[in-house]
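REQUEST ID: PR-0412
SUBMITTED BY: lab tech R.K.
PRIORITY: routine
TASK: structure prediction, single protein chain
INPUT:
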Amino acid sequence: MNKNNFFVARIDNSGRTQSIYHHLIQVAEKCWQFCGKVGLEKWGYAAGILHDIGKYSDDFQKYIRNAVQNGAGRGSVHHSIVGAVEAIKRYGPQVGKILAYAIAGHHSGLPNGKKRHAGDRSALSWRLENEIKNIGDPSRWKEEVGDALPEIDPEQLAPWFQN
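STATUS: complete
OUTPUT:
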């Protein structure tokens, strides 16, 4: 973990903070357990690590540090799309896209894949293309948890798609 900076994931009502590092590891371990029940523990671990990496952005850090004092609106800084984009980059269009749905929807529910109409901004395809443009550089996550991402074999999908 970066000893010089403390990246905040959340602040509870009493003002206690949780680092992003600890939050990601704890969530990844829980996801490992849940997904392990169907043999996809590495998928769960990857989703757990990636789900909040967007919180490393300067915009999110400013928001979270000021939220308690100024009452900034919950959800006013998007962060989940960063992990969705990274999942596709790292794991490709099959595994990555499946992970991206879970990661992008971890606050609001699973998004539609494609836009239903011209103004639809909830679809994953729109979010992957547009929301990422408005998020500052969150790449600091790689220093703290980048090495924790497991390799995933896409062939693990095969049993799920057999007749």
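NOTES: The chain has one domain: 8-142.
REVIEWED BY: pending
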